[in-house]
Design goal:
The protein has about 450 residues and is of the alpha/beta class. The chain has 3 domains: about 5-105, Response regulator (Rossmann fold, 3-Layer(aba) Sandwich), CATH 3.40.50; about 155-285, Rossmann fold; about 290-455, Reverse transcriptase/Diguanylate cyclase domain (Alpha-Beta Plaits, 2-Layer Sandwich). The chain is about 45% helix and about 20% strand. The chain has a 5-stranded parallel beta sheet, with helices on both faces. The longest helix has about 30 residues, at about 260-290. The protein starts with a strand and ends in a 5-residue tail after the last strand. InterPro entries: CheY-like_superfamily, Diguanylate_Cyclase, GGDEF_dom, Nucleotide_cyclase, Rev_trsase/Diguanyl_cyclase, Sig_transdc_resp-reg_receiver.
């Protein structure tokens, strides 16, 4: 399954139609008829996202959304409200209650699925940063957030033929304290220093997908890859809307640049970006000094152990698998003995780089010491873990490591032991490492240069 979605709607027909659409996209679907039932289900099952009708038998959709967002344990769950008539006041009410998006019936399946993918990606990325921040706080290394915020830099980029946007700009500036400007498409990536924190891409009403190229370039540029992007389309541009979300837009307006709605969406994106930036900076600066290995620049044991414990706890709470791997370089002592410790250090840094480049952002990679590495992969079952570990072994063995300045080419192989915590258990992280270590010993005894899966924890 790609995620657990709770549908809250008083009409059985609406619930069934939406369930069929989501089930076809491999989502696990839960159904609730009332807001009270939905709150109970959220408390018991912690869904990945909630889709709520504006009108429920006991209270309104915005009221349910506000209750979800007010609960500290649930506040990060994405909430999408669905209403029957596309009205600006209804969208404003939903956004003011904390909704992440608003859809209109009949629901466009293409946009719905793209929106869910986008929301879940953003939630997972932020959750990983928050998890790392929590680990730092447990170690006493996190800093408090700044007590003030400077105005954000917002660039509005119109696509296509010129339009009169001064009234929109004036309305935004009346409400927002931020530095908002209209920027030509060919300048946003080239002439702005510093780059904007938020980019609003305005599709032209008569075009289809004209801003998608700019969106892709913004995400590819090192200067703007972390910018918040609001993509604005019109009702008939459904394919552009869905493509924009899949290409990395943080938010979407499908009804053109309505000022009141844009204000609310910009405020939310600015808050979220500032929060994520703080988490990212905290991870980068705090961990670099105390929690990284100075040679490989990977996390060290001091960071890895408490972080893995939190990963195991979260996997057990969410009832999802967790793969833990212990990797060890084969015959590495020979490298140091024959070619010297400088050559050994070059091999270690090269191995670390290859491993890091082939893991996900949510995965944990750490140097435990010597030539031993720890890898932890959330939401990874035994089949996937064995495939990925075998691929990592091949990546290390397929190309030798060049030693500067002599140009010497040193071959190297890697053995990996794997342990899996299944959704049904709550095994401690220390035992997972011990299981992976035993599997590693078997891989070494069986010839090295391979990955072996230990008994699955039950």
């Amino acid at each position: 399954m790609t995620g657990r979605i709770l549908i809250v709607d008083g009409l059985p027909t609406n619930r069934i139609i939406l369930r069929v659409k989501l089930a076809a996209a491999y989502y696990e679907v839960m159904l609730a008829e009332t807001g009270a039932a939905a709150l109970d289900m959220i408390g018991q099952h912690q869904p990945d996202a909630v889709i709520v009708s504006m009108d429920l038998p006991d209270f309104s959709g915005p009221e349910l959304c506000a209750r979800i967002k007010a609960n500290q344990s649930w506040s990060e769950i994405p909430v999408v409200l669905v209403h029957g008539i596309d009205q600006t006041d209804a969208r404003i009410s939903a956004l003011s209650a904390g909704a992440d998006d608003i859809l209109t019936r009949p629901i466009d399946e293409l946009v719905l699925l793209a929106r869910l993918r986008s929301l879940l990606r953003a939630r997972d990325a932020e959750a990983e940063l928050r998890l790392r921040d929590d680990t730092q706080r447990a170690l006493g290394l996190a800093e408090e957030a700044a007590g003030f915020a400077v105005p954000a830099r917002v660039a509005i980029v119109p696509i296509g033929a010129p339009r009169k946007l001064e009234p929109l700009l004036e309305d935004l500036r009346k409400t927002l304290p931020d530095r908002i400007s209209i920027v030509p498409q060919d300048s946003v990536l080239r002439d702005l220093n510093p780059p904007p924190e938020v980019v609003v891409i305005l599709e032209h009403p008569a075009s289809e997908g004209g801003g998608l190229g700019l969106l892709a370039n913004l995400r590819a540029s090192t200067e703007t890859r972390h910018a918040a992007i609001l993509y604005v389309t019109y009702p008939k541009q459904r394919r552009s809307a869905a493509s924009a979300l899949d290409l990395g837009a943080n938010d979407l307006m499908c009804t053109g640049p309505e000022p009141r709605e844009m204000v609310l969406r910009l405020q939310k994106q600015i808050r979220r970006k500032r929060h994520v930036d703080r988490l990212r900076d905290n991870v980068r600066d705090g961990l670099r000094a105390a929690l990284t290995d100075p040679l490989t620049e990977l996390f060290n044991r001091r960071y890895a152990m408490p972080h893995l414990a939190r990963m195991a706890e979260r996997a057990a709470q969410q009832k999802r698998p967790l793969a833990v791997m212990v990797a060890d370089l084969d015959h590495f002592k020979r490298v140091n003995d024959v070619h010297g410790h400088a050559a050994g250090d070059a091999v270690l840094t090269g191995v670390a780089r290859r491993l890091s480049n082939n893991l996900r952002a949510a995965d944990l990679l750490a140097r435990l010491g010597g030539e031993e590495f720890l890898i932890a992969m959330p939401d990874t079952d035994c089949v996937t873990a064995l495939h990925l570990a075998s691929r990592l072994c091949q990546l290390i063995s397929s190309h030798p490591f060049e030693i500067s300045p002599s140009g010497l080419q040193l071959p190297q192989t890697l053995s990996i032991g794997i342990a899996i915590a299944t959704p049904e258990n709550n095994i401690p992280s220390s035992e997972l490492i011990a299981m992976a270590d035993r599997a590693l010993y078997c891989a070494k005894a069986d010839g090295r240069n391979q990955a072996l899966l230990g008994p699955v924890a039950a």
